[in-house]
Amino acid sequence: MSRKWMRLDNAALIFPAIRRRRWVNAFRVSATLAEPVDPAVLQQAVADLMPRFPSMYVRLRTGVFWYYLEEITAPPTVREDYAYPLTLMQDKELRACCLRVMYFRDRIAVEFFHSLTDGTGGMVYLKTLTARYLTLKYGAEIPPEEGILDWQEAPKPEELEDSFVRNTNGVVLNDHEPDALRMRGTREWDFLHLTTGIIPTQALLEAAHRYKSTVTVFLSAVLEQTILEYQAECCPNRERRKPVKVTVPINLRRLYGSKTLRNFVLTLNPGVDPRMGDYSLEELCKIMAAQLAAEGTPQQMAGRIAANVTPQQIAAIRAVPLFLKNFIMGIIYTQRGETKGCINLSNLGQVRMPEAMTPYVRRMEFIIGPQRSYPNNCSVASFGGETYVNMIRNIREPELERRFYSRLVELGVPVLIETNSPETRKGS
């Protein structure tokens, strides 16, 4: 009996093509529980969810013209977490399964190859998995709400659709923009440094409201100001400075009402050119908010979708062998994919769950790995009155996160620091 397969969604096509021997685009979501995780029960929960999430339980396969995803016949084996978050997903692993389910003490973590889904879809899976685990372990009765799916229900067609194809307007948006500053450092190949800033959500909201902005805009502006100041110290000649832009993923489900569990995110790169002068934090917040509002409309985003979808629908391009597509996509990604921003700031926002789960869950987090060509990334999620700002890097120098968290404290936002870096101790 042949296995079922599915095409990669429009955003997912690039990730297999640009992966490297020491880099794969992946992310992690995790839930920290009130008690230690029982691995046998977690394994049963993973198995129970297989029919409900057919787009997650797949492996990466190579065709003549495109990569594709093929269902697996047995659930992935739950394993104990080790080393550091987001250890490299080797090709051999991707050919077996494109997600990992791990545990460590009281934490459940799931890591996804980005071709499967984005942070929103990953969080739906994690919350449903955690709910099923709690039911099996404690008999908790958890309703399918707040992003938790009924594990016994059949998957819905809209959850499996490629929403990019459905929401293109066919009018390609020309979005030429200058390259941004590239952060540098001493590369480390065998370790990812993770620094988590734990912030009272109310304090963060109050700070953002003082600058008449959202949390995403406020954090992006603070990060942008940090990089501007760092560049000014490293490059006193203003004329030689590069634009500073923070890449912000936009969840398109909110714009188009999509229910897909696959990728449905596009990025914007709001920022400023330091050659034009200095900027206060208030000005940066206004600029970031205005650029995101102007470029993040359904009409503008549909044009960006069209720029990605239209070429893939041309028969001549579809007939190009995969190895040539990989070469071409690699060039395009090098020129346009990461050169327009300095760092990602991806905010999943407030993670909500049914009241029946709250006695069992202490913490929810989201971590995206470093990009292929720049060493730092930032991801944010809020839960239980705390906001977890995770900054990850594959370089030795902790300069960016040190400056960023220090700047938040200067602005009156208390930050408790946790880190896995051996040179830094836990502190506040």
Reconstruct the topology from this structure.
Elements (H helix, E strand, L loop, with lengths): L4 E3 L6 H5 L7 E8 L5 H10 L9 E5 L4 E5 L7 E2 L10 H4 L4 E6 L2 E7 L5 H20 L18 H4 L2 H4 L26 E8 H10 L4 H20 L9 E8 L1 H4 L8 E4 L2 E2 L8 H15 L2 H15 L2 H4 L3 H16 L5 E8 L10 E8 L7 E8 L2 E8 L5 H12 L5 E4 L9
Parallel strand pairs: 5-6, 9-12, 12-14
Antiparallel strand pairs: 1-4, 2-7, 2-13, 3-4, 6-7, 8-15, 8-16, 9-10, 9-11, 14-15
Helix pairs in contact: 2-4, 7-8, 8-10, 8-14
How does this structure look, described?
The protein has 428 residues and is α+β, with helices and mostly antiparallel strands. The chain folds into 2 domains: 5-152, Chloramphenicol Acetyltransferase, CATH 3.30.559; 193-310 and 338-419, 2-Layer Sandwich (Chloramphenicol Acetyltransferase), CATH 3.30.559.30. Helix content is 33%, strand content 22%. It contains 14 helices and 16 strands. Strands 8, 9, 10, 11, 12, 14, 15 and 16 form an 8-stranded mixed beta sheet that branches. A 5-stranded mixed beta sheet has the order 5-6-7-2-13, with helices on one face. A 3-stranded antiparallel beta sheet has the order 1-4-3, with no helix packed on it. Strand 5, helix 3 and strand 6 (99-104) form a beta-alpha-beta unit. Helix 2 packs across helix 4, helix 7 packs across helix 8 (215-234) and helix 8 (215-234) packs across helix 10. The longest helix has 20 residues, at 119-138. The protein is globular. The model has no long low-confidence stretch (mean pLDDT 92).
